[in-house]
Amino acid sequence: MSYTKRVDGRAFDELRPMSVKVGVLENALGSCLFQMGKTKVLAGVYGPRQLYPRFLRNPEKGTVRCFYNMYSFSVSDRKRPGPGRREKELSEKIAQALEPAVMLEKFPDAVVDVFVEIIQADAGTRCASICAASTALADAGMPMKDIVSSVAMGKIGDKICADIDKYEEDYEGGATDIPIAFMPRTGEITLLQLDGEISPEDLKKAISVGREKVKEIYEKQKEALTAKYKGDKQ
Fold first, then answer.
1. pLDDT greater than 60 at residue 44
2. Does CATH place domain 18-233 in 3.20.20.10?
3. Which is nearest to 160 in space by CA: 7, 19, 8, 11?
4. What sign does the CA torsion over 198, 154, 115, 104 have?
5. What is the torsional sign of CA 196, 85, 191, 14?
6. Could you read off the pLDDT of 87-103 as tens digits, one per residue?
7. For the chain, which residues make up each domain, given as ranges?
8. Nearest one of 41, 47, 39 to 22, comparing CA atoms
9. What's the pTM value of the predicted model, to 2 decimals?
């Protein structure tokens, strides 16, 4: 089915309005409030600290552990409180997307805990969580190779779209969700998932467009960190 126009009027490769703020949690080592359209995510970083139980420790490198939680009131149909199977799976995927960017060899036997809270959801929560968590890690001063930036690509009907929203995610004409995360400086992909069907050619196009769009997100992440750094110096 042909998808001729996005409901919110955006171009097919256009991101929703975005805002990034760091240092928003007083008691966290690093924190970030990341908003993409109506999706709003708060991330806090704690650690590094000794990992328990001991058998989980790695003497050669540390561990990034993520806890993804979606508030009951974050969606219009109200979800059941507490982490379910989806939350546990997303926690693992977000941690896996972050790990390549963090210099874990700097703190063997230790763990860095990243808590991600979905305050409001309109699709793309996994990608927004990665952006928030990565920026919070940078805010915490973690040794990193790069910030990780992520975007929810999708094939909606017959069109490749960037930063899909809930309407597009549920599009009756056919929707394929393609969350992607990159380290923008090197272009390395740290997360690539696929929910739906897509041709190899369209997948390559989605990755190519995603690689370009995360550069816009990356700039916003850096601007937020720079603004805080300048403020601390004054």
1. yes
2. no
3. 11
4. positive
5. positive
6. 999 999 999 999 999 99
7. 18-233
8. 41
9. 0.93
